[in-house]
Design brief:
The chain is an alpha/beta fold and about 110 residues long. It is built from four helices and three strands; from the N terminus they run H-E-H-E-H-E-H.
């Protein structure tokens, strides 16, 4: 009896969740950039092209930069990556990758 009650309760909670999620859902669009490796040959011009594309479209609400922003994790690479990403006209959220912390002069926390 307890298992049947628990299963009913799970289904009820799931149903309530799905109804609430559909009622309060927002149409959010984002783009993910990863493995930018700023510091590697031509990486800054590639990122500049992405930034230009993103800024010239109204399709996205924010950008996720999913790791490996830099090639070797040097302070100079982080500063260049930040200056290029700061040109975005929408918010961006960077995440560290292994190349950002493995060799990073700052430990990837600047």
């Amino acid at each position: 009896l307890a298992i049947k009650t628990f299963e009913k309760m799970k289904k009820t909670i799931l149903t309530i969740y799905l109804i609430a999620a559909s009622l309060f859902a927002q149409n959010t669009k984002f783009i993910v950039l990863s493995n930018l490796r700023i510091g590697a040959p031509k990486s800054d011009s590639v990122l500049s092209s992405f930034v230009h594309f993103i800024n010239n479209t109204d399709k996205f609400d924010f950008v996720i930069v999913a790791g490996n922003l830099t090639d070797k994790g040097s302070d100079k690479e982080f500063e260049l990556a930040k200056s290029l990403l700061d040109e975005l006209q929408i918010p961006y959220y960077p995440l560290q990758g292994y190349s950002d912390v493995q060799w990073a002069q700052s430990g990837g926390i600047k």
